[in-house]
Every structure is written in structure tokens, then in C-alpha cells.
Amino acid sequence: MKSIFFFVPLFNFLLAACFGLLLRAAFVYPSINESITYLYILHAHSHIALLGWLYMLVYVLFVHFFGIKNDKENRFYVRLFWVTEAAVLGMALTFPFQGYAAASITFSTLHIICSYLFGYHLWKNNRLVNKQIRLLLKTALAFMFISTLGVWFLGPAVGMMGKTSAFYQICIQFFLHFQFNGWFFTAFLTLIFNWFLSSKRIKYFGLFYGLWILSVVLTFGLILAWYLDIAQFYWVNAGGVTLQLLAFAVLSKNFWDVLKKRTEFGHGYIWMLLALCCFVFRILMQMITASEVFAAQTQVVRSWIIGFIHLNMLGILTGLGFWFMIKLQKIRLNFNIKTGAFFLLTAFIATEIILFLQGIKMLTGKVILENDFGLLFLFSIGFPVGILFTLNSLNKKIRL
Fold first, then answer.
1. 331 has which bridge partners?
2. Residue-wise pLDDT tens for the chain (400 aa)?
3. Is pTM, for the whole model, over 0.70?
4. Which of 327, 330, 337 has its CA nearest to residue 386?
5. Quick check: 287 and 243 in contact, CB under 8 A?
6. Helix, strand, coil content of the chain in percent (nearest 5)
């Protein structure tokens, strides 16, 4: 895939970062709320980050590694890419001004239809030889299809019970859970397996695969426990967390030699290191939610929920995405990428720490950090600045 197809997801990432900065500015400069609707900007930020940045990045990486067999297929993926990007830009232009309304819902629906076409075509026509990795690819695509069930059930949920109902919230969380933990995580696992282990038969793959699928399904129990107030679902979540730990313990047997050698990661290893560190924190946080008492408390600590989402999106998935772009030589290792990495990493680490301290304040009432919203806004400036530097480090051979 040519460099322009990597430029577009990064541009979407910049849009999402700007919307996020505006959200944080609203807490520092209250007058901003007179000219924007906070919830509408939040919808724009989340949709562009998820469907414009991560989805489009995985689209490009999947097509690059698994998709193109001939010129006909290349034309199919290129045309579908631009239609999907039109849907993303449509959401960016409509959500900030009207939230969920006819125009924004139309663009969201178009994106889902494009994802179905992409998933179906890649399922039928991928060029993977390794059967184990092909199974992972199809599983990632299956999770993508499954996640959209949550979107289709939103209409009936509103019609039957309203937007304040548990059913409505579960539909939203179903989509997000199977997007993040199912589709995107399995997608990047597929890419990593393909990069490091494509020429090998993966040891204990069947055991890892079974444990991973069960863990994704069972950890949705935390959401059900929150909104249905059924304590038994906390135990379901605890079982899912345990299975996830076992799954990655099995997986580590395949990657232990790779992890010991920094040279295996090559240039841009800082992004792989970020992803690995954030993954460890993710596991630790999920282990904590295995405790029923703590899991129930986290539902009301919005700062920790946002921090956990950003840990996954900005730390793990974005870190892996940047590493792949560097390995594919789509991003050049020059002053711009190093400066961009400095701003992005500083912004990410600082905002995660502040969100964590905010959560402690919400739980205990103890103020550890003064002017936390001001500092969140200040450090968040680093996101769009870092992305701009990264965009300037892209390979200049941008041709259609």
C-alpha cells in the first residue's frame, strides 16, 4: 500500500485529537460550552478515533499483508478505502453539529456497510498460507461483524426502553467491547503472528486460541454486572480475566526468544516497548476488576474508564500501529518522527497519570493534584502537535 493510504488514517487521528483537545478545553474555558454541544463533540471524537484512525489503519495493514492478489482486487480495495474515508469525513462534519441525527447516522451506516464488504472480501480472498494465522484473521473479522450487532440493536433499545435504559447502554458497550477486545486486539495479534511467526507452526496455538476467544466473551460480564446489577456476572468477568492471563502465558512461549532481543523489533522499538508496557498495565487493571468490590466502584469513576480506553487505544494499538508503519518504511526515522514521538509519549503518559489521580479524588475526595483539568488540557496539546510532526515524517512518495 502506498504512503497516501497511511497518511489518511494519521490525518483522521489528527482530527480525533483536535476534537479531544476541544473536549478538555471545555473544562478549562467554560465559555466554550456556549458555542459547542459537549456531547456532540464527544460523539465526533470517539467515532473518528475508532472508525477513522484505528479501523482505517487496520484496513490498510490487512490489505498490505493479506489482501492484494491482482490488479482487480487492488482496485476494489482502493475504491472501498475512499468510500469508507468519505463516511469518516461525513461523520466528522455532522456529529459536532447535530450528534446522532439523520446525516450522521447515514454516514455511520455507510461505514458499517463498507466494513462488511471489506470483511467479506478479505475472508474469501486473503492470500495467507499459514492456516493458524488465517484462522486468527477470520476470527478478527468475525468479531468485527459481531460487534456491529450492538449498533443495530440501538434503534429497538431506544424505541422500547429509551436512551436511559440498561438495554441501550449494554448495546453501546457491546459494540465497544467487541471492537476493542475482539476486532482490534485480534487484528493486531494476527499482524504480529504474521510478522514474527508466519514461517513456523505456532506452538500450543489451539490452546491459546480457545482461551483467548473465551476470555473476550466472558470479560463482557463486567458490563452486564454494571448495568444489570447481577453480582454473578462479576464472577464471569473474573473467569474471563483468568483465561486471558492463561492465554498470554501460553502465547509467551512462542515469543520469548523475540522479547529477549531488542534487535528483533528493529527501528522504532520504542513504540513496541510502549505497547508491551501498556499491555502489562492493562492486564493488571483487569486483574483488579476481578474483585467484585473494586469492579463495582470503577463504574462511576469516569476518569479511570477514559484512562483505560486511552491505555488500549493510544498505548497498545497506536503503539503497534506506529511500529508497523516504521517497519514498513512508511514513516522515516528523522527529526520529525523523533520530535513527534516525544510530544505523543509525553502527552500520553502525563494524561494517563492525571486521569488516575482524578479517579482517586473521585473515590476518596482527597485532592492530590491541583488544577487537574488545566494540566489535562495543557498536556493534551501534545497529541495534535505530535501527530503533525509524524505526518511530516511520512515517506514523501505519495502517489495514487
1. 394
2. 678 899 999 999 999 999 999 999 999 998 998 889 999 999 999 999 999 999 999 999 999 999 877 778 889 999 999 999 999 999 999 999 998 889 999 999 999 999 999 999 999 988 888 899 999 999 999 999 999 999 998 888 878 777 778 888 899 999 999 999 999 999 999 999 998 877 677 788 899 999 999 999 999 998 998 888 888 898 999 899 999 999 988 887 777 666 655 555 556 788 988 998 999 898 888 888 777 777 777 777 889 899 999 999 999 999 999 999 988 888 887 888 889 999 999 999 999 999 999 988 887 777 777 888 999 999 999 999 999 999 988 865 544 3
3. yes
4. 337
5. no
6. 80, 0, 15
The residue type of 261 is K
Question: Which of 278-288 are b and which e, b meaning 16 or more Cβ less than 10 Å from the residue's Cβ?
Answer: bbebbeeebee
**C-alpha–C-alpha distance, residues 22 and 377, integer Å:** 9
At 271 the three-state DSSP class reads: helix
DSSP 291-339: SHHHHHHHTT-HHHHHHHHHIIIIIIIHHHHHHHHHHTTSB--SHHHHH
The torsion of the CA quartet 64, 65, 68, 74, rounded to 10 degrees, works out to -10
Grid cell in block for residue 242: 483468568
Buried b / exposed e along 354-375 (16+ C-beta atoms within 10 A) = bbebbbbeeeeeeeeeeebeeb
Contact 349, 300 (CB under 8 A): no
β partners of residue 394? 331
Half-sphere exposure of 93 (CA within 13 A, CB side): 9
